[in-house]
Structures are given as structure tokens and as C-alpha cells.
Amino acid sequence: MKTESTNRSEFGSVPEGVKAAVGVLTRSSPVLALLFLWQALGFVGALPVYVPAPTTIVNHLFVMFAEGTLIKNAWATLQLVYVGFFGGAALGIVLGVLTGRITLFGRLFDPLVSMTYPIPKIALFPIFVIWFGIGFMSKAIVVFLAAFYPVYIHTFDGVRGVPELHVWSAQNFDASRFQILTEVVIPDSLPQILSGLRVGLALAFIVVFSAELIQSDLGLGQLALQARQFNNYELMFSSISVIALFGVFHDRLLLLIRRRLLYYQEGDER
Predict the structure, then answer these.
(1) What is the dihedral of CA 144, 145, 146, 150, to 10 degrees?
(2) In 10 A of CB 218, how many CB atoms?
(3) Residues 233/52, Cβ–Cβ less than 8 Å
(4) pLDDT tens digits, residue range 115-174?
(5) pTM of this prediction?
């Protein structure tokens, strides 16, 4: 009887791969339903002329890929995101840790952040164009600032929220300041830091697309601007779709890293 029940449980168990696939399908069902409805409306001719069907957008993406337009402009956008995001995130983490741990440094720097944070970063883009021209630098700085502030604020809050009991316990074991920082403060602050990185990454994609819409020679935003000027709705929706897919992919990648680093937490974001 015991062997029979064991075999039943083994054969009745669902493989992890199947569970993961079902989970992905469940989370994707609203998007799939929306795409299905969108395509159905296009099939019956109920869509306005300025809203192409999903299959039309996909076909146009293949054409852009074959012509080399897609890769060239997508890579130009990704370069700006990577340079601006990683630079802003690195500075945000360093300053967030410093201001969170050193009270005097926090009192000096925090008012400056509080004063400049509410300013829309894209509003500074024309100023940077005057200073640095319309090339790579002006857009990279805007993305840098968009990523810096949320990462800094989340890191600062995370460091300030570290229980003093944890620090005292490490001090009782004769831990050095560096050990307290790397083995107590940063690990305890990691959930907040990763949340800030996620917000900063999303803002980086938003701001880079907006900056390219204003002034750019290359990029997905520039393609959308070109599409608006010539009423090329397939090109417009194609560029928007690519930036959306980039955002989703990088967000999922960041969540995967979060799950690996915070494996000990239950109920983590999916």
C-alpha cells in the first residue's frame, strides 16, 4: 500500500517546467486576450486607419529587420539606456549608502535631492542640448538623471531602515566598518535597492524615448517622430512595440536577478 501511494504521488506530481509554463501563461493571459481582441477587430475591419492590426505591425517589423533599420535604431536606443541607467544607478547606490550611513553627509546632500527631484528630467533636455549639442551626451545625461533619483532614494531609505540591532550584533563580533557595510548594511538594504533599480530602469526607457522624440538622428523615438510626420502608422506602432518589448524584457531580467539574490524571501514578485 505504501509503495502504491508513493508511485501515485510520483506520477501525479506536476513537473516544475509545466508549473512554470502555466504560470507564464496565466500572467500573460490579459495581454494575449487584448491582442486577440485587437486582431479580431482588425480582421473584421473595425479598426480605424491609424490603428494597424498586430499582424500588420509584426510584418512591418520583419521588413524593418530585413532592411537593417530596426537593428540600427534599436541599438542606438539601447546604448543610451545602458550608459545612462548603469551610470545613474551606480552613483545612486554609492551616494545612497553614504548619505544613509553618514548623518552629516546626508544632511548636506538630501536637501539638494529634495529640491531637484521634482523637476521633470525631460524638461532639462533642451538645456543639455544647448550645452552638449544634439548628440549622444545630452540624451545620456537625461537618462542618467532619470535613473539616479529613484535608485538613490530607495537606497537611502533602505540603508536608514537597517535595524541598529543588526549593526550592534556585528560590532559585538568585532566586525570592521567595511564588514558591517558589506555583510550587514547592504544585504539588509538589498530589497529596497533592487526596487529602486526597477523604477529607475523603467524611467530610463520612458525618458530615452521622449528625448529621441524631441531631437535625435537615430533611435526608436526618432522613428516614431518620422512616422508621425509622414502618417506612417505601421512604423509608429512598430517603434512603440519594440520599446515596450525592451522594457518588459529588461524588467523580467531584473526580477529574475532579484529572485536569485533574495531567494530567502517568500512571496517575491513574479
Answers:
(1) 110
(2) 17
(3) yes
(4) 888 888 888 888 998 888 888 899 999 999 999 999 999 999 988 887 777 777 877 777
(5) 0.82
